[in-house]
Design a protein that fits this description.
Blueprint (H helix, E strand, L loop, with lengths): L1 H6 L4 H8 L3 H14 L10 H11 L4 H8 L1
Helix pairs in contact: 2-3, 4-5
Length: 70
């Protein structure tokens, strides 16, 4: 589904036609895909990613990051 969406340059109508479903159904499926990829505003942030961002900002050190991963 993502490949079709990208090939159609983000045109949801093309995605709708490709899937053979209504626009709301195509949109819901695409939103679900974004959620699984962690790209949805509704998606829970990945705690590992948050920890790496804290490490990059200098809020925690490598030892603390390692402890959290264990």
């Amino acid at each position: 589904m993502l490949r079709v969406f990208l090939a159609s340059r983000g045109n949801m109508k093309d995605l709708e036609r490709h899937l053979g479903v209504s626009y709301p159904t195509a949109r819901a499926r695409f939103d679900a895909l974004l959620g699984r990829l962690g790209l949805s505003e509704k998606a829970e942030p990945d705690p590992r990613l948050q920890m790496l961002e804290q490490l990059a900002r200098g809020e925690i050190d490598v030892d603390e990051a390692d402890r959290r991963l264990s």
